[in-house]
User: What shape does this take?
Amino acid sequence: MPDSPAHQDPHWLNRTVWGMALTSFFSDLGHEAQSTLLPTFLAALGCPPLVLGAVEGIADAASSFIKLGAGWISDRLPRRKPIVVVGYAATGIASAIISLAQGWPLILGGKLFGWAGRGIRGPLRDAMLTDAIPQEARGRAFGFHRAGDTLGAILGPLGVVLVLGRGSSHGWVGLPFLRTLMFWTMIPGLIAAGIMAWVIREKDRPRIRQVALRHALAQMPNPFRRYLTGVGLFGAGDFAHTLLILAASQLLAPVHGPMRAAALGGLLYVWHNTVYAAAAYPAGHLGDKIGHSRILGGAYAISTLVPLTLIGCFVRGWASLPLFVAIFGLAGLVNGIQDTLEGATTANLVPEEHRGLGFGLLGAVNGFGDFLSSLAVGALWTLNPALGFGFAALMMALGAGVVLSGARA
Assistant: This one.
């Protein structure tokens, strides 16, 4: 689909792409440190796995509705950047709110506040990124951005693991120590907001004729609707990564002890994010050459191996550290491809005048899928972990089938 050249820099690796990668680096540095710490923090407060799944799922669902509205409104505004700055700041401040929690209600409140910021900023940032790059380089630009994002997601959890390890050796690890650590994960998020405010440049966009939301939704192309169906089905099985960390921590605890198992879960998540970062740019480059949706659908199909293997771990009692290295590595590979090519595919399928809404719809569908998957896997886990991960595998397989059928059409 051709684009207006008004906002595009012919060189795809430009100031906007670099600045957004750096912004996302700091944002994920703080956010992923918080995510790595959250299971241990909840356990210290006496909360079961169902609470973790519910908190993650509800926050994702709330974020999804905000993404939809924010994307639609942004298509009618001359500038998107001020709203994006506020969104990054809110995501950082959420960590400070969570650090004050005495139980799950304030943790949920903090997550909702942070995910509201994430919902506001996500589709607008992706639309700004698309406007700044040529069409033939979308996969590479989104891949580069995701790689910068995930470099922060490597260093954030790694920092938490190192601090937890040092705290454990000195006998510091307790609820007050965890609160302090949670609070300080706010700082990188505020730095990210500052970079977005002072580094990224955005030209005023021409005002587009106002269209009611229902009419704008009706104008979305049929291939994009089918694509969103596949994304939604896959998302219904794509459970929160904090549940993956929790699974590793629980299964490794009998062998390594609870605190060391928690540290190993954090290190495995660092490994997950390292593979993610390494996969993002090559996935985008390959997608530019042979088709974004083909690579994406294949990654969806391969991802079913993660929940299927976890079923074996819980049913057969597998607690091998090398096996978890493989599980987290495969999950990181799939997520790197997924987060790069879902955005690039959306940019290809949505007309420019509705680009913000298109990314908002993508975020909304993903958010609702995250809500369903995290809540369902967390609830079924309470009955039997195999039920939760079996549900995840089924939904992932269905999503893969829909996206691959669309790619062949």
Observations:
- Residues 1-9 have pLDDT under 50 and may be disordered.
- The chain has one domain: 13-202+222-404.
- The chain is about 80% helix and 0% strand.
- Residues 13-202+222-404 form a domain with the Growth Hormone; Chain: A; fold (CATH 1.20.1250.20).
